[in-house]
Design goal:
Layout: H1 3-7, H2 17-20, H3 28-45, H4 51-55, H5 57-66, E1 73-77, H6 83-91, H7 126-139, E2 146-151, H8 158-167, E3 175-180, H9 191-198, H10 203-218, H11 224-242, H12 247-250, E4 254-260, H13 264-274, E5 281-286, H14 294-298, H15 329-343, E6 347-351, H16 361-366, E7 371-373, H17 378-390, E8 394-400, H18 401-404, H19 408-416, E9 422-427, H20 444-448, E10 454-457, H21 462-472, E11 479-483, E12 507-510, E13 515-520, H22 523-540, E14 547-551, E15 554-556, H23 560-569, E16 572-580, H24 585-595, E17 601-607, H25 617-623, H26 628-638
C-alpha cells in the first residue's frame, strides 16, 4: 500500500456513491478530509477551480450519502463547485485529466456521467432545471427526489428568482440548497447577500412544526388547500417570534437554516429529516470558500482558480519569473480604464461579479464610488448601464463574451434602440481554453452583427485596445462594443498615447499581389505568422507567393472601401476570425461581395458550426484548423 493510499484509506475504497453509503456516519468526517487532500494535491499539478470545490466537500458527501443518486437528481449551480462530486461518482481515477484536452470536462455534463444531471458552466439555472425535473417525475409517476444546489453568488441571477417564483406556484417536492459562502468569485454583493447573512431560524420551532404537520396529515385534517393556509400562518408566526422574515417563506417555500455546511453528520441528519417532506423547501447552509486549505481560506478570490502551486507550502508557481511577458488584455483594459476615468469624470465601471477577472478592480480600488459590481446579473448590468447612460454618465460595462449571451435582449431594447453612449467590453472573446464550450466566446460577433446602432470592434493588440477604448468614450459614439480574448497579448511595451481611430476603417498590415487575408482581432498575429510561413515555404520550393494582410478592426460598420478594393484586386480571399464562421466576419465579407457583384473565391476560417471541447488554446486552435500552421496550409492551397 502506497503512502498516498494510506492517506486516502476511505476514499481509495469508494468508486461510486453506493460505496459511500456503506460507511458509518462517524466515518464521513475522515472521508471529507481525504477528499480535500485529494483535490488540493491534484489541482496543485493540474490547475482548476480550487476554492469553490473545497467549500462544498461536506455537502457533497452528505447529499450522495442521503439521496439515492443517480436515480435522485442533484443539479449543481455553479458547476465549478462539483470536483468532489466528480471524484465520488466514478471519475476518481480520471480526475487528473480534468480540464485537459480529451480529459474530464471542466463542469458537470450529462454526456460524461449519469450523475451529472444538467450542464451548469455558468450560474443561476439550477432552480429552473430542477423544477422541470421534479415536474417530469411527477407527471410520469416516478418517485424521485430532486435537489438544486445553488451557491457562489448564483442566487443574485435573475433566472434564479424566476425559478423561485415558479417553484412557489407549481406542485413539487423539490429541495433547494443555498450554499451561502458570501462569495461568487469576488466578494458577493447586494441586498440578497445582506439578507442571507442575517437569516436565522429556531430549530425547536421547525421540529415542532414538522411533527404537527405530520400529525395533521395522518389525521386527514390537512388537505392541499388547508396546507397552504397553514403554511402562511406558520410563516407569519415564525416571523413574529423571531422578528425576521425571508423571501423564501414569503413565496410559501419552507425554509430551514442556516446550518453549518462543514458539519457533515449534522447535514446528513437534516437532509434525512427534510428529504421526504411534501412541498418545496430550502435549506440554507453557511460554508467557507477554500475550506481546509489555509491559503485558499485567506484569499478565496485568488485561489478560485490559482494555477499551479506547491502542495506543501501553498506557494503559487509562476513560469519564468525573470522573463518579461506581454500583459494580459484584462490588465491593459483595467489600467486604461482608470487612466481614461481620471481624464473623463463621466466614466463609470460596471461588471457582474468579475471585477478581479476583468481587472476592473484597478479602478474599483482607486475610485470605489464610480465602479459597480452588480453580482451575477448580466442583463441587469447592461440595463443599469443604459440607465446611467441615458442620464449623462458613460458606463464601461465589462462582461465575459459567453455570459453576455444572457443580456441579448437588454442590449437591443435597453441600449441599441436608444443609441445610448455606453461601452460594452466583451472579455474572454474567442476560444478561451480549459473552461470549454460553456465559456468559449464564440458567438458574440454573429449575434451582435444584426443589431442596428451598434459599433463592433476588436483590437489586434494592446495598443489598439487602448485606442479603441479612447475612441469609444468620445462624445456621440453611441453603443460601442469592444471584444478581446483571455490572456496575454503580443506587446511587452503595451502603453501608448491615446489616439482616435476612424469608425469603420480597417488597415493594410502587409501588401501582396496573389491573395488577401482579412482578419479581425488578435487572431491577426497568428495570421501574420501563417503568411510568413507560407511565403517561406513557397520560396524554399522555388515558387513565388505574395500575400496581403488586412486588419479589419471593425466588424460593424465594416470598411466597405477596403472590401471594394480587395474585391476588385484579388480573386482569392481568406477571412480569419476567432468566432463562429456562421454569421461573423466571413459572412459579412461574402454578403458584401454578393451585394456588389464581386465574385472572388472566399475561404472562411473560424470556429466551425459545433461546440468546441476544452483544452489549451493552442490545442483547440489546431483542432479546428485555426492555428498558424493550418492558416498557412489554407493560404498555400488557395494559391
Amino acid at each position: 500500500m502506497t503512502d498516498e493510499t494510506k492517506e486516502l484509506a476511505l476514499l481509495s475504497k469508494i468508486e461510486y456513491p453506493s460505496d459511500l453509503r456503506q460507511l458509518r456516519v462517524s466515518q464521513l468526517p475522515q472521508l471529507c478530509d481525504e477528499l480535500r487532500q485529494d483535490i488540493i494535491r491534484e489541482l496543485s499539478k493540474n490547475p482548476g477551480h480550487l476554492a469553490s470545490s473545497l467549500g462544498v466537500v461536506e455537502l457533497t458527501v452528505a447529499l450522495h450519502y442521503v439521496f439515492n443518486t443517480p436515480d435522485d437528481r442533484i443539479v449543481w449551480d455553479v458547476g465549478h463547485q462539483a470536483y468532489a462530486h466528480k471524484i465520488l461518482t466514478g471519475r476518481k481515477d480520471r480526475f487528473s485529466t480534468n480540464r485537459k484536452f480529451h480529459g474530464l470536462k471542466p463542469f458537470p455534463f450529462p454526456t460524461e456521467s449519469e450523475y451529472d444531471t444538467f450542464c451548469c458552466g455558468h450560474a443561476s439555472n439550477s432552480i429552473s432545471a430542477a423544477l422541470g425535473m421534479a415536474v417530469a417525475a411527477r407527471r410520469q409517476g416516478i418517485d424521485r427526489k430532486v435537489v438544486a444546489v445553488i451557491g457562489d453568488g448564483a442566487m443574485s441571477g435573475g433566472l434564479a428568482f424566476e425559478g423561485l417564483n415558479n417553484v412557489s406556484s407549481t406542485p413539487n417536492d423539490m429541495l433547494i440548497i443555498l450554499n451561502d459562502n458570501n462569495m461568487s468569485i469576488d466578494q458577493s454583493v447586494g441586498g440578497m447577500r445582506q439578507s442571507l447573512l442575517e437569516l436565522t431560524t429556531n430549530s425547536t420551532y421547525n421540529r415542532l412544526r414538522y411533527k404537527a404537520s405530520l400529525k395533521l396529515y395522518e389525521w386527514g385534517i390537512l388537505n392541499d388547500r388547508r396546507k397552504k393556509g397553514l403554511l402562511r400562518f406558520n410563516n407569519s408566526m415564525k416571523a413574529l417570534l423571531t422578528n425576521q422574515q425571508n423571501i423564501f417563506e414569503g413565496l410559501d417555500i419552507r425554509y430551514f437554516g442556516p446550518a453549518d455546511g462543514h458539519r457533515v453528520a449534522e447535514l446528513v441528519h437534516i437532509l434525512r429529516v427534510i428529504k421526504d417532506m411534501k412541498g418545496p423547501k430550502i435549506l440554507h447552509i453557511h460554508t467557507k470558500k477554500g475550506k481546509g486549505y489555509q491559503p485558499a481560506e485567506q484569499n478565496a478570490t485568488v485561489w478560485h482558480a490559482p494555477g499551479l502551486f506547491d502542495y506543501e507550502s501553498g506557494e503559487r508557481i509562476k513560469s519564468d519569473p525573470g522573463t518579461p511577458h506581454p500583459p494580459k488584455f484584462q490588465d491593459v483594459f483595467g489600467k486604461t480604464l482608470l487612466e481614461l476615468a481620471q481624464q473623463n469624470d463621466k466614466i463609470v465601471g460596471v461588471t457582474p461579479a468579475m471585477p478581479t477577472g476583468c481587472s476592473m478592480n484597478i479602478m474599483m480600488q482607486a475610485m470605489p464610488d464610480r465602479t459597480f459590481d452588480v453580482g451575477i446579473a448580466e442583463g441587469h448590468a447592461v440595463t443599469f448601464s443604459g440607465g446611467m447612460a441615458k442620464d449623462g454618465l458613460l458606463p464601461f460595462c465589462n462582461i465575459y463574451s459567453s455570459f453576455m449571451q444572457r443580456a441579448y435582449d437588454n442590449i437591443i431594447h435597453d441600449a441599441a434602440i436608444m443609441r445610448l453612449n455606453m461601452v460594452l467590453c466583451l472579455d474572454r472573446a474567442g476560444i478561451v481554453g480549459e473552461d470549454g464550450p460553456t465559456h468559449h466566446g464564440a458567438f458574440d460577433m454573429a449575434f451582435l452583427r444584426p443589431i442596428p446602432n451598434l459599433t463592433i470592434a476588436s483590437p489586434l493588440d494592446e495598443h489598439e485596445l487602448r485606442k479603441l477604448m479612447y475612441t469609444a468614450q468620445l462624445p456621440d459614439k453611441g453603443t460601442f462594443v469592444i471584444r478581446y480574448p483571455r490572456g496575454s497579448g503580443s506587446l511587452i511595451d503595451w502603453h501608448c498615447d491615446f489616439e482616435e481611430l476612424p469608425i469603420g476603417r480597417g488597415r493594410c498590415l502587409k501588401e501582396g499581389t496573389d491573395l488577401a487575408v482579412l482578419s479581425i482581432g488578435p487572431i491577426g498575429t497568428e495570421v501574420a505568422q501563417a503568411i510568413t510561413m507560407a511565403e517561406m515555404e513557397a520560396a524554399n520550393s522555388g515558387r513565388k507567393l505574395s500575400v496581403a494582410h488586412y486588419d479589419m478592426r471593425f466588424l460593424k460598420p465594416i470598411d466597405t472601401d477596403l472590401l471594394d478594393e480587395v474585391g476588385h484586386i484579388f480573386n482569392r480571399i481568406i477571412t480569419v476570425e476567432d468566432g463562429v464562421v456562421e454569421g461573423g466576419l466571413g459572412s459579412a465579407v461574402l454578403e458584401y461581395m454578393s451585394d456588389h457583384n464581386l465574385a472572388p473565391h472566399v475561404h472562411r476560417i473560424g470556429i466551425p458550426d459545433r461546440f468546441i471541447e476544452h483544452g489549451t488554446v493552442p490545442e483547440l486552435r489546431h483542432l479546428i484548423g485555426m492555428d498558424a500552421a493550418a492558416i498557412s496550409k489554407a493560404i498555400q492551397e488557395m494559391k
